[in-house]
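FIELD: query
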Amino acid sequence: MISEPELEGGAPFEATEVLTEERAPRPRRARPPWRWALGGALAASVLWGGGLYAYHAGQRQPEGVDLRGYESVEDLCELAELKGLEAVLGDRSGSGGTGPYLDEPAMSESSCSAEFGEGERQQGVEITYTLHKQTDPGPEFAARAKQHDLTEPIGGVGEQAFFSGSEDGGRMWVLDGQAVLEFSLYRNYIEDENGEVTERGAPDLTGIDVPLSQDALALLAALRK
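FIELD: result
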């Protein structure tokens, strides 16, 4: 049998050495200082902007103010029947005059004027209806009334009502939710041919707050329809 001399008594097997080229790690380039500063400023700006947005979001006026059925009305005289004043002061003359009309997202406002009686006994009334659609007029209503010398509270008319009377007329302010009514009753003075004011026949306005209250309640109900 032929032996395999290369397997017998031969030199021990030596493992082949694998040569690899060892590469030195590349040095990391230092980022310019201005880039670090810019990145930090941008991050701070984003955080600040987010905080500012959240702050303003929290300060926004809440949506969906409850108007309790009150609506903007252009022709206020059509709804203001004023039966209480008419019973005390005499027949209402004409349909009344309508003032400038305002209707904006924040508020609406309309007005009406009417006259009662004849001659020296004639009285006039001015009514203003303001509907606040975004802000609440309640917290400052009493203070505003006091500022205009309306110091007598009237119960049972809206949420708050104040009155002030004189021999020539009277004023009443009424608050109900977002709606505010202002009544101003005044005397129409008549001048003679010489330009002098006649003083005869002035009606007695004692207790005029009662028919004013009745007319205010009736108008509030009509404005909610």
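FIELD: remark
The longest helix spans residues 33-59.
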